[in-house]
Amino acid sequence: MTTIEPLAIELRRLSFQYPNGRRALDEISCTISRGDRIAIVGPSGAGKSTLLMHLNGLLPTTAVGTDEESQVLVHGAGVIRSRLRDVRRQVGFLFQDPDDQLFCPTVREDVAFGPLNLGVDRKEVLARVERGLAAVEMSDCSARNPAELSTGERKRVCLAGVLACEPSILVLDEPTSNLDPRARRQLLSILKAFTGTQIVATHDLDFVLDLCDRVLVLDAGKVQADGKTERILSDPLIMDRHGLEVPWRLRPANR
Amino acid sequence: MKLAITMTVILVAGLVPLEHWPAQGLLLAITFTGLSLAGVTMRYLLRRLVLFLPLLLVFGLSVPAAGASDLAWSWTISMWLRCTVSFMAGLWLIHVLPFPELLSTLRRWRCPLVLIAMLGFMYRYTFILWDELRRLRNARDARAFGGNSWWRSWSINSQMIGLLLLRAMERAERTHRAMLSRGWDGSIRFLNMDE
């Protein structure tokens, strides 16, 4: 009998060190509940991307073997070597550069990549491709070469490819980088429509204000602050100390 | 269908006997007609041939230069004609058949999956690398000011090529990570659009 695990992600004193000895993550502990939308912010080099890559088992590169050693739990189960396939089905990862993820000759084939790998049968693959492209409003571009699309369109196709795997947790690394305001708004509305758990690493604090209810400030590999978005982002002490700044909307003169 | 035509032309070009000039002339005429029907301009064709011919000419001259056979010059000219025919047949194919359809045709012909996957990647990443190269070239031109000696230009360009290689390798690693994140386990699968 399985019980619905309320915790989507649990980090137990997660630490990570690069081969050259540099400590990227230092004893990070945190829990994220189902349906939460949490932003991870911090200066460049704080370890945001490194942390994100632990959530779907891309790091550590020699995957952990047993549940006891596991420092990352997804839906209550440790991210270990034997479970990587399941973890990657549950945790969808959107990378920063769309060209790193769009590697098939046409849009349709690329969105189908995930479902095909999951062993879904052909009719269902096609249905998921349709649904994924419809969710990002790119249904009329299914036969096109990704090279013909603009950056915003490529990002949406990448997101369609991730959504086609039907994950319950969405992890996004700098989703708004290189997007013009219209593309950014479109992305925001697509993400607001996604009902699962979302974890976003970003520098775009206005985006965080629009999308996320919780913020985690990461600096030098450690959690420096964790709490409600408005409270943390409007605190000038926290913001200045960690290389950020209070968003325009929250400054006392502009409220 | 179109792939079959191309392969036939190339095969015939390869098998035609050495001195059978009329046949070779006919093949040349056929491919030329095909190209003009496909809308390929003379200028485009010449530009592509310019890239291909020098190497071909050098190879062609190797036999007479070595004095290896009585039919040396016949062999050379025949070889030039046949290779040009094959090359133009290939050009015709990529003009009339969109690349994704070429890949699905190859798949139907039971071509090894690894080969098809590699062709697919190559197609996609040629565009990306071309963009990177354009960016590097723009960056170089913005600060080049034109007055460089050929040696300096040469060393700048070779640095650019090295950088391009490095960026290609880094991108390959990131792409691999993206593939793993979507459940890739090493086996190559394709979406079959027919049926």
Can you walk through the features of this model?
The complex is a heterodimer of chains A (255) and B (195). Chain A has 255 residues and is α/β, with parallel strands linked by helices. Chain A has a domain of 176 residues: Rossmann fold (3-Layer(aba) Sandwich), CATH 3.40.50. Helices cover 35% and strands 23% of the residues of chain A. In chain A, β9 and β10 form a beta hairpin. The radius of gyration of chain A is 18 Å and the shape is globular. The mean pLDDT of chain A is 90. Chain B is mainly α. Chain B has two domains: 96 residues, no CATH class; 70 residues. Chain B has seven helices and no strands. Classes of the chains: A alpha/beta (255), B mainly alpha (195). The interface between A and B is medium-sized, with 37 and 28 residues.
Question: Largest sheet of chain A, described in full?
Answer: 6 strands, mixed
Order of helices and strands of chain A, N to C?
EEEHEEHEHHHHEHEHEEHH
Number of helices of chain A: 10
Question: What is the share of helical residues of chain A?
Answer: 25-40%
| Count of β-strands of chain A | 10
Number of strands of chain B: 0
| Distinct helical segment count of chain B | 7
CATH class of one domain in chain A: Alpha Beta
Query: Which class do the helix and strand fractions of chain A yield?
Result: alpha/beta
Give a quick precis of the structure.
Chain A is an alpha/beta fold. Chain A contains ten helices and ten strands. In chain A, strand 9 and strand 10 form a beta hairpin.
Annotation keywords:
heterodimer, A: 255 residues, alpha/beta, six-stranded mixed beta sheet, four-stranded antiparallel beta sheet, 35% helix, B: 195 residues, mainly alpha, globular
